[in-house]
Amino acid sequence: MPAPSALTTPVSGWGRTAPTTAHVFRPRTYEEAAEAVRDCGGRGAIARGLGRAYGDAAQNAGGSVLDMTGLDRIHEIDAINGLVVCDAGVSLHRLMQVLLPLGWFVPVSPGTRYVTVGGAIGTDIHGKNHHLSGSFTRHVRAIELLTADGGTRLVTPEDEPELFWATAGGMGLTGVVLAATIQLLPVETSLMSVDTERATDLDDLMARLTAGDHRYRYSVAWIDLLARGAKTGRAVLTRGDHAPLGALPPRARRAPLDFRPGRLPGAPNFVPEGLLGRGSVGLFNALWYHKAPRERHGELQKISTFFHPLDGVPDWNRIYGRSGFVQYQFVVPNGQESALRRIVERISRRGIPSFLAVLKRFGEADPGWLSFPMAGWTLALDIPATMPGLATFLDVLDDEVAAADGRVYLAKDSRLRPDLLPGMYPRLDAFRRLRAELDPRGVFTSDLARRLAL
Ligand SMILES: Cc1cc2nc3c(=O)[nH]c(=O)nc-3n(C[C@H](O)[C@H](O)[C@H](O)COP(=O)(O)OP(=O)(O)OC[C@H]3O[C@@H](n4cnc5c(N)ncnc54)[C@H](O)[C@@H]3O)c2cc1C
């Protein structure tokens, strides 16, 4: 087998803040992947999917990065029981294209379809259905894992629970996922039935989420974080489920499982700094809030509109200009609503020019050792990296989150202080012990792993 060729190139996360140069391999076979791991040298290796983690999780300065998108075969579909076996480099977009016509949907989808199965397991992604369905890896029945010695093993939650749950959300540090078996969700149509309502402030929003989430499979709120005073935390709440066949108008019933997401022109290469100031973003947020219906029920929306509105604009991350942006996502447990209020107030007082932020209520925590969700409230927002005093401001928020027994999401992080990590992720020591046993030479590593001593 010829050795896979490597390209020395800068690699960054979706936020584009801290690129580092690595040898990037794109294996086309499992053997090529194994060879790249065996030959990776002293700076180690890390798997990479579609690079949608915002920070430095899928980069490895001076070492190897395995771009897994060349391993993108769908091996087997059990259309009766809703199981798919596929390579880790297959994207959720591709799975939707293939599986929707058969009446099956991915069990958990994040805010973009352009993530790979390996990335979904590596960060144990959550979706708008976390309160009901938990995170992605709960629906994974088996993983084929390439380990530090270059061998592969089939890991299931029954046979090797420790390795399985350390790999779920393990940021690629237990090995390279080569393939996975995923349990799917049956659907009758490719449309969503959506209820929309406006919440006038944060308390109103939290009350609506608490009272009604159990009635919906999917739920999410888009908050205007630039609104201040009595309007702080005003939001548009959208909740829904897959539409049953009977809910479709007669014309749509002829092709109920059609999946044709639209695409707009891409974002310009560079946007002048200053365009994304408080004034322009505030105006956008206000327009968006008032444009939403006060209350609307049963609207039929495409899957792409409901789940992945940003995917319609290719390379939208460029709108933040050359300096990129930081995505900040944290969760605080139920009972810590006052901490959430304080943080939202701080953000809106500070006037961070963030386009609509996202608030969601998580269900029970997942078994993954470093999985992010816990039963409580999670908020995610984009912040331009050029914001003055950003590092100090986020450090203060981190302290508030830590004091409330919450945590920040590693898939989005690029700047957390390492000393806060053990409190946020209580299974971190077990994770480190397992890695030390499994990978004594520290083959698997990344910029994130070095920065946070994972
Ligand atoms: C617009 C947008 C919306 C998003 N919404 C959400 C959301 O709602 N919920 C959510 O949870 N996340 C969300 N994310 C984050 C995204 O889902 C995760 O970062 C996901 O991991 C990206 O997948 P990827 O294939 O691009 O992985 P990458 O970004 O390339 O890698 C992410 C991590 O997974 C590891 N990894 C990748 N492939 C493998 C493999 N084959 N084996 C082992 N480890 C691997 C990497 O080493 C790295 O640690 C969003 C991101 C964007 C850009």
Can you describe this structure?
The protein has 454 residues and is of the alpha+beta class. It has helices spanning 30-38, 92-99, 117-122, 130-133, 161-167, 202-212, 278-291, 303-307, 337-350, 390-403, 421-424, 428-438, 447-452, and strands at residues 6-11, 20-25, 45-48, 64-67, 74-78, 83-87, 104-105, 140-146, 152-155, 176-183, 185-186, 191-199, 218-223, 235-242, 295-302, 325-333, 357-362, 376-384, 407-408. Strand 1 and strand 2 (20-25) form a beta hairpin. It is globular. The chain binds flavin-adenine dinucleotide. Flavin-adenine dinucleotide binds next to strand 3, helix 3 and strand 10.
Task: Outline the secondary-structure elements.
Layout: E1 6-11, E2 20-25, H1 30-38, E3 45-48, E4 64-67, E5 74-78, E6 83-87, H2 92-99, E7 104-105, H3 117-122, H4 130-133, E8 140-146, E9 152-155, H5 161-167, E10 176-183, E11 185-186, E12 191-199, H6 202-212, E13 218-223, E14 235-242, H7 278-291, E15 295-302, H8 303-307, E16 325-333, H9 337-350, E17 357-362, E18 376-384, H10 390-403, E19 407-408, H11 421-424, H12 428-438, H13 447-452
Parallel strand pairs: 2-4, 3-4
Antiparallel strand pairs: 1-2, 5-6, 6-10, 7-11, 8-9, 8-10, 12-14, 12-15, 13-14, 13-17, 16-18, 16-19, 17-18
This protein binds flavin-adenine dinucleotide (FAD).
